Amino acid sequence: MGTTKIAIELHDSVIGSLSSEGSDLKLSLNPAYVHRSIGIPGIDPGDGLVQDAIITIRDGSVAGELPEFPTHILDGECLLGSQTIIDLIHLPLDQEGSVSLVLHVAPDYRKIVMTGKHISIRMIGNARWVERVN
To answer: Which structural domain range is residue 49 located in?
Structure first.
């Protein structure tokens, strides 16, 4: 049996808060929607779960009109150097270098852009099963 892999699906995740600690941005997903699979999350069959997560962007800045929190993420992408990740961020993620996290949020599809020099994601607590993903 293969190793279980997980990824956060930005669409269907909920932003609980966005704060700064010194020069770092902390984005709380309460909850994040997570795909878990022994294959490739988001492509191969597996499970859909929810679990809280903290995305930290070091030396971060934020642009755009912030909504009231909590708010649902409608779609998003993460730019890591020259790589663009659309909607599904594979974990673990702890990467140095230029980063830009672009999120479109409810209710009006407004855009929030967070940029910085390092991104990491830490899962919090236990995952709760939601559905089978085929």
So the answer is: 5-133
